[in-house]
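Run log // design_07
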């Protein structure tokens, strides 16, 4: 039985509307970091037929992603490729878009910073990064449910937790990105959209 995430079903339509606003016909390759079950790729990729959508995740999630991809048979989805932040080299390709959903609060902050540094080293000017998930602002959670979620995350792994918006923006800025937009999403989530403004050799 293939893996299933109810959260993916709930958030995929709002995520699609944001991606439609920012992805252009000029964009050719998208890397999804942390594809999870594969549901987001299967739902979103058909709406961007001009894009090659590259799924990636840790090896233990590959079987589930393959089940979703094999069943859907969507021509513009590639992978899954192995990419564990802090362990594997950033996938070799010239990506115009990087999309990641619900990964920053699972990874340690050190891993988040490693990913953002890799994005700065590998993406060229004009590339966009979409980071979906919950964030806190000025040290405050945006809802009681997010505060409770943060406690449950830290119970499972003390290095996990909802990240500070300011910390993410500062780290992305340091690595050559500019915040394009902070989009409020349903269920106390956000999409932070960044653009690469200059390329670090």
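design_07 sequence
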């Amino acid at each position: 039985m293939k893996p299933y995430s109810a959260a993916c079903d709930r958030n995929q339509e709002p995520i699609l509307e944001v991606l439609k606003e920012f992805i252009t016909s000029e964009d050719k390759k998208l890397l999804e970091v942390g594809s999870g079950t594969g549901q987001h790729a299967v739902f979103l990729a058909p709406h961007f037929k001009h894009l090659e959508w590259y799924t990636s995740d840790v090896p233990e999630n590959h079987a589930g992603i393959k089940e979703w991809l094999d069943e859907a048979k969507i021509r513009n989805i590639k992978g899954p490729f192995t990419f564990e932040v802090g362990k594997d080299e950033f996938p070799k390709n010239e990506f115009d878009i990087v999309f990641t959903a619900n990964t920053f609060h699972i990874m340690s902050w050190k891993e988040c910073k490693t990913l953002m540094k890799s994005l700065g080293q590998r993406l060229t000017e004009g590339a966009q990064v979409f980071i979906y998930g919950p964030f806190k602002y000025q040290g405050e959670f945006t809802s009681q449910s997010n505060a409770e979620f943060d406690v449950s995350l830290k119970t499972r792994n003390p290095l996990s937790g909802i990240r500070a918006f300011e910390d993410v923006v500062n780290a992305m800025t340091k690595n050559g990105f500019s915040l394009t937009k902070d989009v409020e999403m349903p269920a106390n989530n956000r999409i932070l959209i960044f653009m690469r403004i200059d390329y670090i050799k």
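Residues 6-196 form a domain with the Rossmann fold fold (CATH 3.40.50.150).
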